[in-house]
């Protein structure tokens, strides 16, 4: 008790000194936290720039094909995944004098953040962070916001009113390259303000996610493969898919993915992407050993799914791979799961339309058209539009509308000439309409690019993918009727 009394008396006598000491400690902690908040992104940027400068050393200019897989080391790889998956959403600015419009602009900003938050692969700024920056959309302000929030992309915008209509303009800026990579204006009647906010936000997010994906792959494409980490190699592998599909692109991308797996053997997305490309080799006939290629595709997708059964990219690629392997029901479940996790993942929605159009009968084709119409409404200039047009052509062909099928397939060809299956689809529809010479011309154009992709291979793959007799007839009946495909029995 005496000891306790002495301790209390000492604390009372030294109360002022202790309070000062505590205050100093608190201030020091605040200063440390502030300095770390400000300096961390700057230091990270400096480290990235130093790495980029070091990559220009003449000693490291060895070609990609000269670097054996066994020679890969983690310390050689360049990490580009610090910031590419991050978006800072700036508070949209109201340019009108009506004070209510500020609330509408803020509501659109909030809706965008909510929608992006549902995508597990992208980190987005919080409302508090977004609202703490004044909606002044000059370059310095955007750059400052991105650095403070450690983001590569900044989404900004403004709102104007004209009577009962509003106009919302949104821009996506890549801070590293200091370029505006996307911009679009949306005009809506404002009868139901909340529905308008929701609709515009969905359109912006659906488009932006595709643009971010494209920007990531473009960034990785510019860096030599031996300087990339596993994440970067996967992005590099996707680049050809969104720009110019080709058989060579499939082979090059497969090489990047094998390097990614060598660096990170349990990286699920690398296994899933490689499985999808193996499936592409199956349907294009470029594999020397069909059965081995099929087993490789199955091996990699099963491993990816075991490692990350809820990963969006794994589910996307699982859907495509399982479809090409003849497991359409499993493919459908995987893609619907991806959409449930991220409703505005338009890539997964597009792949779902493919599976429904090819193997879902008339009802599936009708649902596919609805899905693709919504995709186009949400993001009419999405990087995947060429493939969506092909999927739409499939759906129209399944419903027997060959003229419309040709129209959509020709759009796909103009956007992605290397995607030869659109030409095969046109050939079948022209043959079904009695234009044998037109069908022959498109079949010849396919052979010129890829001699292995014959009408017979196309037919055999249809049997695997579409399963139902009526589906097979819809996609090959014209070619069979005109004698381009020989079968032992009529379909």
Number of helices: 20
The helical percent reads 55-70%
Identify the overall geometry: globular
- Helix and strand content put the structural class at alpha/beta
Q: Between the first and last Cα atoms, what is the distance in angstroms?
A: 100 Å
Instruction: Give the C-alpha Rg.
Output: 28 Å
Strand content: 5-15%
For the biggest sheet, the summary is: 6 strands, mixed
The pLDDT mean sits at 82
Number of DSSP strand runs:
6
Report low-confidence residues grouped into runs of 5 or more.
17-84
Q: What are the secondary-structure elements, in order, as H or E?
A: HHEEHEHHEEEHHHHHHHHHHHHHHH
Give the topology, please.
Blueprint: H1 2-13, H2 15-54, E1 86-89, E2 93-94, H3 100-117, E3 123-124, H4 127-131, H5 139-148, E4 153-162, E5 165-174, E6 179-189, H6 193-221, H7 230-243, H8 247-263, H9 268-284, H10 290-307, H11 312-324, H12 328-341, H13 346-359, H14 361-378, H15 385-398, H16 402-415, H17 421-432, H18 436-449, H19 455-466, H20 469-481
Parallel strand pairs: 1-3, 1-4, 2-4
Antiparallel strand pairs: 4-5, 5-6
